[in-house]
Structure prediction request, 85 residues.
Amino acid sequence: MSALSKEVLSECAKFELNIVGVLAARWKGYNEKKISVGPTVFEVLCSGESGSHFARVTVILGPKATNALCSWKPVNGRFVCKICF
Prediction:
């Protein structure tokens, strides 16, 4: 994870944000991952193909939003679609 990614997640924890959308994210290697920042655990959902390093749309969910999430489905590199709470 890059320094910028760590900074974004630490700001989300600092301001207790529950849903954050990130455009042109370059998080390689997964479509879904849980990342801890101190005591806060974020779920990161990325659109596009797993393993690609292209700019993608990413949704960062805080603990409350993660608990409310029923399902989600990535459509392509430009859209994350069908997020159900």
